[in-house]
Amino acid sequence: MVRPPTARPVVPGVGRLGLLEPSASQSLRELAWDNVDSIPLLWALSRSPDADLALLTLIRLREQLGTRWAALDSVLRTDNAVRGRLFALIGSSSAFADHLVADPECWQLLQRKELPGRDELIADLLDAVRAVPETGERAGPMLYRAGISGPEAVALLRKRYRDQLMLLAAIDLAATVENEPVLPYQRVGTQLTDLADAALTAALSVSVARVCPEQPVPVRLAVVAMGKCGARELNYVSDVDVIFVAEPADATASRLAAEMMSVGSNAFFDVDAALRPEGKAGALVRTLDSHIAYYKRWARTWEFQALLKNRPATGDLELGEQYRKALMPMVWTASERPDFVADVQAMRRRVEDLVPEDMRERELKLGHGSLRDVEFAVQLLQLVHGKADESLHVQGTVEALTALAARGYVGRDDAANLTASYEFLRLLEHRLQLQRLKRTHTLPAFDDEEGMRWLARAAHMRPDGRQDAVGVLASEIKRNAVRVRRLHAKLFYRPLLDSVARLDADALRLSPAAAVRQLAALGYADPENALSHLKALTGEIGRKGRIQALLLPTLLEWLGETSNPDQGLLAYRRVSEGLDDQTWFLRELRDEGAIAQRLMIVLGSSAYLPDLLINAPETIRMFADGPSGPLLLSPKADDVRGGIMSGAARYEDPKRAVATARSLRRHELARVASADVLGMLEVPQVCSALSSVWVAVLEASLRAVIRASEAELGHEAPADLAVIGMGRLGGLELGYGSDADVLFVCDPRPGADETAAVKWSISVADQVQRLLGAPSTDPPLQVDAGLRPEGRNGALVRTLAAYDAYYRQWAQPWEVQALLRAHQVAGDQQLGVRFLHVIDAVRYPAGGVSADAVREIRRIKARVDSERLPRGANPATHTKLGRGGLADIEWTVQLMQLRHAHEVQSLHNTSTLQSLDAIEQADLLDPTDVALLRDAWLTATKARNALVLVRGKSADQLPGPGRLLSAVARVAGWPNDDGSEFLDHYMRVTRRAKSVVERVFGGE
């Protein structure tokens, strides 16, 4: 029996391999791939998106490698993973084919098992330019200095970046050739973003070396990624949008940013900063505060939409995170902007209109049923619902769709379909860009058979029995475009009024009778009068009237929660009319909910503040929250003092200088009082702030008068002049209703006639008093020198020697006691300190105060209690002179100082609170007694300040139960509206303190 010959594998023909080039057979022979052992290679080659391109590249690689080709050939025959990666890569991308031929040994990168992580990518690109961590106090963890910064740095970085990009593309494409796992779309985007972060970090390192070659970087610079990079969903070829934040935003910061953009754009991809405030016309680099101010005042709707995807990428990441934390709250309240939804929808139409009509079906990014349709719909829904739902605070489109579906804002089927279509369109976009590493979003024409075939194979399309791969691709493109367009229309243009937080103006459309009933229900005692205010506010023609109508329903509710909504509405009308020409006022109330609500609380609680706010309207802007808390708390005492001093110093005329100082004081009073009413400040903070303002105004006024006097004299002043603070000013514990008790002391300069010097000093002091005490709508500025020797009958100003002689010979016990609170506050500092040294021997006598002096002080206190308490005042609730009130506590502390200051140095202190601390530390009183005195002083001071804030004028007597007492209680920080509870608490605290006073001061 004759056996048939053994069947031998047949080498497939070049046509069956998808090879169309006439030279393909010759090329296979050159590679020695025309034998049976090469069949696995040939079948893998046939699955490459462009087998001819892949084969041509292999020939070029063989020529470049020479004898080293054998190593690659061996790996391709034995390692399916490397074979799939290489054939898919060189059959999909002519750009990467050229890259491999230019450096043929880099094929070995394709043997790597896993993609590198973000830290490894950063290290790899930094290594290309030998970068090391930057040192210096402004260097953050992502700031490096390149060791190679010349022109060659760009080429080195480009090569290293392209190597890493090639590895990702090869792994991403491998499934088209071999049965390798498909790399998820989101994983590709994340890897590309990590690589972009590494590229930006390396570019910044070169910038550092070029801009600051010899010294540490003197600025903090944060690079914030925006757009697709910010959302970690980058394309293979894409602009990388960035925003720069710097502290300070000086020329060095600008040069660093510009150089980084130049290096990055030449080495990697276009680095684009056009999304910054004011676009390309704006400053390249801004400080954090400048960014915040811009977005609060000027930013348009699309800019908040863009901020949705901001992410600190490199540089000073801490500063970048501060930027993000400061601006994201504005993003999530952007939907409150008028016509927000309409603006976003109109913006999408404008973008679509930029695409020529004949290209809209082929445009993956901007056309009909495109990527932008998905992104705009998702972003709109995020912004609308994200204010109330933090689960939507994500950046990626797919992550946001998942969150929207999970929370029920989008149907699960709709979300799944939209996600699938989005990922399909992004896959096509990636494949198109990989072909030549060009930034493109345009599909081949549907009649371009060769282009469509290549794209179908690159996108893993397979025949389905009815259509070839090209037909399947064309059908999928049309199906997904229709689906995206349908879902976009469903989600993007559906009625969203129920979802957008809008103010309801229905109350303003009620009949007068119904409006009166509603106002009464909100707590307005005189609803007819309130209605007249509403009509006046909404009666303005045009935009202001419309905004008022939009705001007032919510403002009325907030006012209704205050202690005096009628007063608050009247005050709001006065403020609105007073700021009628200030276009920002209503805009701030509309756009900043914190400003509107806090303003209503202030106006409905305080009669002290409306006039101040009308005359210092910029304070209202400080009701907003800044990056580190309410702006009302941001100024520092030294900054406030410096502002008052420099403002007054601009004027030669003392009247104008003092007017400027008073104006700045008005602003500061409005700020402090507003923060106090809103419960943002404690009593010591209020007293310290008020005292520092008084001191600054006094200093500025004194300098202005002296400056004018010297100009008039034509020479220097004949004497040094100092102002000594007394009483609560000396203790830096002023309240809203406090006068400034002072002493004026002079010292003739060498060669000056003493009589003339004193006369000049009296003239200056008198002018300061008159200028500061001039009539004004502001709270009074009364400078009181009644505590001077011989009282109001004595000289307004004395020399230092005269004070010394008087106090040594004639000082009465009450005068010695008054000197305990003497402190240098204005004028010549050295003279003021010399005065304090002179009186130290008087107020802190060796051996302590005499028994006779103690008896005299007790006698005077008893007389004050019986004679100075106003007729009809309730001694239990008078905050200053009543039982356990301020006078009781302060006299007790001062008696302790007179007795013990000679042996306890810490009692050389003008502050009541600090002296109490010293008494406790020295064990002069039981800590429980000290705590009772301290609590009473704080309680009485807070109540006294609250009285002034509520009534708008100085007052010391707490009212009886009723609306006024409830208002005082709320401003004083009592947790509910029960004024009687507050009063009981006040009386209990002061009664306990009085028992300590009677034991310690009265000697019982």
From TrEMBL:
Q: What class of enzyme is it?
A: transferase
Q: Which GO terms describe its biological process?
A: regulation of glutamine family amino acid metabolic process
Q: Which family does the record assign? A: Belongs to the GlnE family.
Presence of keyword Magnesium: yes
Q: Which organism is it from?
A: Nocardia macrotermitis
Where is region (Adenylyl transferase) located?
504-1004
Q: Where in this chain does the record put each PII-uridylyltransferase/Glutamine-synthetase adenylyltransferase domain?
A: 346-492, 874-1000
MF terms (GO), sorted A to Z = [glutamate-ammonia-ligase] adenylyltransferase activity; [glutamine synthetase]-adenylyl-L-tyrosine phosphorylase activity; ATP binding; magnesium ion binding
Q: Which residue ranges are recorded for the region named Adenylyl removase?
A: 1-496
**GO CC annotation, single:** cytosol
InterPro entries assigned? GlnE, GlnE_rpt_dom, NT_sf, PII_UdlTrfase/GS_AdlTrfase
Q: Which gene encodes it?
A: glnE
Q: What cofactors are annotated for this protein?
A: Mg(2+)
The record's NCBIfam families line, in alphabetical order, gives: PRK14109.1
Its biological purpose = Involved in the regulation of glutamine synthetase GlnA, a key enzyme in the process to assimilate ammonia. When cellular nitrogen levels are high, the C-terminal adenylyl transferase (AT) inactivates GlnA by covalent transfer of an adenylyl group from ATP to specific tyrosine residue of GlnA, thus reducing its activity. Conversely, when nitrogen levels are low, the N-terminal adenylyl removase (AR) activates GlnA by removing the adenylyl group by phosphorolysis, increasing its activity.
**What protein does this entry describe?**
Bifunctional glutamine synthetase adenylyltransferase/adenylyl-removing enzyme
Q: What keywords are assigned to this protein?
A: ATP-binding, Magnesium, Multifunctional enzyme, Nucleotide-binding, Nucleotidyltransferase, Transferase
Domain named Glutamate-ammonia ligase adenylyltransferase repeated: which ranges? 85-323, 597-837
Q: What is its EC number?
A: 2.7.7.89, 2.7.7.42
Q: Which HAMAP family match?
A: GlnE
- Catalyzed reaction equations: [glutamine synthetase]-O(4)-(5'-adenylyl)-L-tyrosine + phosphate = [glutamine synthetase]-L-tyrosine + ADP; [glutamine synthetase]-L-tyrosine + ATP = [glutamine synthetase]-O(4)-(5'-adenylyl)-L-tyrosine + diphosphate
Q: One Pfam family, short name please?
A: GlnD_UR_UTase
